[in-house]
Amino acid sequence: MANWTKNNIPDLTGKIILVTGGNSGLGYEAVKMFAEKNAKVILASRSIERGKIAKQEILQDVPAGDIDVRGLDLGSLNSIKGFAAEFKRNYAQLDILMNNAGIMWCPYGKTKDGFESQMGVNHFGHFALTGLLLDLIVNTEDSRVVNVSSLGHRRAKWDPEALMFDENNYDGSVAYFNSKLANLLFTYELQRKFEAKGIRAMAVAAHPGGSNTNLAKHVEERFWFRLLKPLFLILAQSAAKGTLPQVRASVDPQVKGSEYYGPKGMNEMGGYPVVVKSTEDSHNRDYAAKLWQASEKLTGVSYPI
Asked: Is residue 176 annotated as part of the catalytic site, yes or no?
């Protein structure tokens, strides 16, 4: 099979696509590719100013791009609720929700609602956003929810009874890995719920392999990172190539629910996007059910399915 590239993206005229974290990195490149193919793209960014700068940069290359910048703080349930309400006032459909935004290896902190920040932003924020937009998603023909995970999910240390670290036992790396496992547990459980209700929407996931983005900004000053960074820059693929798995998961007509896309190269670190496998833990239905129940309780967002 030929390598899947952005040239394989079909015409997206009439599609409404929402990308969280669309102002930089993988999200930025995804917004640009969707705009090139005539989609209406909502670029959601915690900073509206940075979102507007990203839009202007994209429009230099895609002058006809239709991009709507909206403010969204995934670390605040109030912000998420306000965003969702405003979105529904302005749009009557949602073809693709790309839950792309994320933070990695942060110092200990909490979201505005008291969640450990990495699990709070990477999972709970996207869980709440998806639930609040779900009526639009299920009423849009052949819609998709695309959750962006990571190779790091393989190193998660999952405890279904303790989803978040506290300040006393915090491990920033494991907190990130656990949040990326949560993205997959959420994806597969959402797809099971779609299928149980006969809903034609799909939930799929993707990871970028080793890609050169600003996600590691919280560890840039650490000795080991400075030591390894030159090697990483040689081995890492560009953000434009790293975003291809999540873009393919969003638009390829051959995609099936619960599929997981990543680079096809050695150890899935780089290469063109193909279906890859996630860990046994990511398919654990007991883990997924408990995470779902906890997510609804903690966010206060119940899914109407």
From this structure: yes
CA quadruple 225, 227, 228, 231: dihedral, nearest 10: 140
3-state secondary structure of 287: helix
Based on C-alpha coordinates, what's the Rg of the chain? 18
Output the CA angle 197-201-207, nearest 5 degrees: 125
As a whole number, mean pLDDT of residues 12-17 equals: 98
State whether residue 226 is helix, strand or coil: helix
Nearest CA to 206 out of 14, 36, 16, 29 is that of 29
The residue annotated as part of the active site, out of 28, 176, 260, 287, is 176
The pTM assigned to this predicted structure is 0.93
Show the domains of the chain with their CATH numbers.
12-297 (3.40.50.720)
Asked if 244 and 8 count as a contact pair (C-beta separation under 8 A), the reply is no
Residue range 170-187: mean pLDDT, rounded: 98
Strands 273-275 and 260-263: antiparallel
Edge-to-edge strand ranges of the sheet holding 202-206: 66-71, 40-45, 16-20, 96-99, 144-148, 202-206, 260-263, 273-275
pLDDT per position as a tens digit, 266-276: 999 999 999 99
